[in-house]
Specification:
Layout (H helix, E strand, L loop, with lengths): L13 E4 L5 E4 L10 E6 L6 H9 L5 H7 L13 E5 L4
Antiparallel strand pairs: 1-2, 3-4
């Protein structure tokens, strides 16, 4: 169901009944990774998190790590930030 690089890949899914009585598969919330801050990126208009993740982490799909370090749930929350904390690349 998830890419092998996904933070959700190793989680155990479970079933619950919704308010209509249907069985629904639930993906648990993964624990936040332990990350070390590399530094800060001063943002410019039009910059995207996937591009910054590719630049700093060599993985465009790692934008969620930048979100986690900046304590935001939605990537667009950082679109107006003057500077964004960047995590160190995991080797």
């Amino acid at each position: 169901m998830f890419n092998s690089k996904s933070r959700y890949a190793q989680l155990t899914l479970y079933q619950v009944k919704d308010h209509r009585g249907r069985q629904v598969t639930v993906v648990p919330v993964p624990a936040a990774p332990a990350q070390t801050k590399l530094g800060y990126h001063i943002t410019r208009q039009g910059q995207r998190l996937d591009h910054l993740a590719h630049k700093y982490l060599d993985d465009a799909t790692g934008f969620w790590r930048i979100c986690e370090l900046n304590d935001v749930m939605l990537p667009e929350t950082l679109s107006e930030a003057a500077e964004i904390a960047i995590p160190k690349k995991v080797r």
